[in-house]
Amino acid sequence: MPSLDVLPAELVLRILAYLPVQSLRSVRLTARRWNQFFVMNESTIYHHAAFLHDFVDSLGIFLPEARESRNLKFLKDVPDWYTYCKRYHQLQKNWVGSGKAATTKFYGRNPYDVHRIKVDEKHGLVITTHEFGGLTVFDMDTTEVLWKLSSAYVRRYAHCEYENGFLIFDRIGVSKEVWRLETLYRDTTDGPHVAAPEASQITEWQAASSRHRWPRAPHGHFRPWRLINTPEFGRAYRFVYPCLLVSGLRKAYVWDVRTGQLVLELENVQGDSPAGDINYVELSASHVFICSSSALRVFSRENKAMILEIPSYQLAYSDIRLAVKRDPAMARHGLATPGEIVRIPLEPTDTTALYSASYAEFSAVHVSRSGKDLVAQLSDSRIISIRDFMRVARGEVPLNKAALELGKTVPYRGVDEHFSIYLCFEYGRIGVITTSGVYAITLDPTRHSLVDPYLASLQNAHGLPQRAIDAGLSFPHVLIASLPYYQDRRQLAKVTCLQVTETKMFFVWDAMYKPDTIDFFRRVGMIDPPPSEAVAAMAGAAAAAGARAGAGPAQAQPMNVEHAVQTEPVAGPSGVHHQGGVTGHPVWNAPGTNAPRHQTATSGGPVAGPSTAPAPAGGNEMTIIEFVPLGDDDEDEWDEDEEDDDSDEDEIDDQEMLEHDADLPPEANLPLINGHRREQNFVSAGPIVFCVDFSPV
Fold first, then answer.
1. How far is Cα of residue 462 from the mean position of the Cα atoms in its chain?
2. Spans of biased composition, class Low complexity (predicted)?
3. What is the mean pLDDT of the segment spanning 193-198?
């Protein structure tokens, strides 16, 4: 029998087209002649690998077109398909905590009151609505404000949707405004140009355009396209180009935003349930998804029939349930940097003891861009994922065999009940925020080049029964990672939006957690200190208490810190782990399941639920006083810091400053009067946009 290396080159290339990058690396390192074959056919081999791992949309695309269509910075200068795959593979590793460092950015202006976020990575835009009204467009790279609609025009807590240049936000009542990116406004390839905005929209557009006549205009500017009035009050809405879905309590409506035409009307979206609210809606090219209090329902857009109904209030939806073990994240809490991401183990569990005693309802649902894979979230933080959900709808596989249930956390200290905050689903990756943390879940790591499918089937990292996988279990090799910097339950409960792009995660978080201000807010007690500092503070407090009780130095009994405060295990210094390739071979490391557990940063879907739901208000102004010792030539006067030109600085006399200082806790340890002081006024607390960028550096 002839060996593989003597087969015709065309046949060998066809075989290699089905191998993931891990196997390609192994084949290449087998022998010198195989490496030579790879060098001679490198473009063809790695072009097929890019298609296998969804790094390109089709095999018919050429490299320049692939770079342009993805429009990602780390691809701009790639010279060949090998480098293209190498950088994309690095991106996948960064998302699961086994790659290089992530970076962070922040988007926000006075007042800090971000409510919703939308992102356009192609045009480099970050769009926000606000608690106090208004809409802002930021430049993704520079974070500068490109364009704004006033708070007098866009209502408070407005929900917004965005895709393919169309921006939609709601008014109070039954109206939805549709605006379009001005650089695309005259593009007629998406359909007929039939704009019918109201006069008030035109007036606001003219005012916004005159306020933002920057050199880069009209980059980031929008222009009114039309106004859509719904037959009834919309409980929730969702835009997936080119269709806008709006759901009332009993009916749902779908419009084509290009023409403003109503294309679908669904009856009885609550099914047989006599009552209940609408929590979330989603749509694909073929289906409409409705999350109500009683159930998750899927309707066919073709015949308007309900094809799938999954009731709420069940303790279990799947035979396979994976619990999240947060120990690695808890060990890094208080020590991690804003961009650090940590791989989290998953543990199969047969018990329902982790679940809420009060049953949960479906709070959110998303479907993949292909329209096949479904991800739903329950209010008690559970996630139900189904690969090719039509298998269940057609009755080919029972729900309990097809679905994978995960998300409940293994209790860290006694009772540890958590609840859902936000869910989004893009590029085969789920972004999740619960009261336990911020998570990135890669559903199919074999598709993302992270795990060799053959090795994964042998190793079965989560210890799942093979019979369950053979029976049709969805996503048995799922990977989950957490950002431990954000494990503050109080703040997690306030998050109002989370968005995931191919390279970045955006979410609403309080500005006081920015690296340049977090130490101050820890000193004044508004943010918990790191675990090691908490232990030291408790020990110091115990010693001080003993001294005040009259005990001498030899007699004072320090508090038993171990019983006074339970602290998380503290990991050692974090670092970036690199695994080198084989000497003499120009290949990159493409590990399987054995990967480092964390990475360190180098710098500090839209909720389609009820559009009227408010969020906690923020945006309080904080004044930080820095005390500088007097020099021989100094005068007793204020030295104004001019870093923030937008702030108004008022003179404060010594008595007012004494009163201000008296309000600070003792641990602030600030001296009084003996020196002149600098005053820094800036809006330092309130919700802004935190962005964690996993792009290869």
1. 24
2. 604-619
3. 70
- Per the structure block, which two tokens stand in for 120? 């356009």
Task: List the structure tokens of 662.
Answer: 């008296």
Sign of CA dihedral 201, 207, 212, 215: positive
Mean local confidence (pLDDT), 373-383: 95
Q: What's residue 31's pLDDT? A: 86
Q: What is the pLDDT of residue 684?
A: 67
Cα 641 to Cα 679: distance, rounded to the nearest angstrom: 6
Q: Which of 224, 301, 226 is nearest to 260 (CA)?
A: 226
One-letter amino acid at 539 equals A
What single DSSP character describes residue 599? E
Number of H helices, E strands in the chain: 17, 35
Task: Give the β-pairing of 676-682 and 639-640.
Answer: parallel
Q: What are phi and psi of 407, to 5 degrees?
A: 120, -30
The residue type of 2 is: P
Q: How confident is the model at residue 529 (pLDDT cuts 50, 70, 90)?
A: confident
Question: Are 381 and 434 contacting, i.e. CB atoms less than 8 angstroms apart?
Answer: yes
The 10s digit of each residue's pLDDT in 589-599 is 433 333 333 44
> Distances from the Cα of 305 to the Cαs of 178, 267, 328, 651, in angstroms?
29, 9, 46, 69
Position of tokens 């960064």? 94
Question: Position 680: which residue type?
Answer: Q
Residues in the chain: 697
Note whether 328 and 598 are within 8 A (CB): yes
What whole-number distance in Å separates Cα of residue 26 and Cα of residue 154?
57
Given a cut of 60, is residue 515 above it in pLDDT?
Answer: yes
How wide is the angle at C-alpha 427 spanned by C-alphas 426 and 433, nearest 5°? 40
pLDDT of residue 438: 97
CA angle 206, 212, 213 (to 5 degrees): 95
∠ Cα 233 235 237 (to 5°) = 105
Exposure string of 236-247, with b = 16+ CB inside 10 Å and e = fewer, is bbbbbebbbbbb
Cβ neighbours of residue 494 under 8 Å, at least 6 residues apart? 508, 510, 615, 616, 687
Q: What is the pLDDT of residue 559?
A: 32
The rounded distance, in Å, linking the Cα atoms of 30 and 380 is 50
**H or E segment to which residue 26 belongs:** helix 21-28
Q: Which of 338, 667, 332, 688 lies closest to 521, judged by CA? A: 667
Q: Which residues pair with 323 in a beta bridge?
A: 347
Check residue 433 and report its DSSP letter.
E
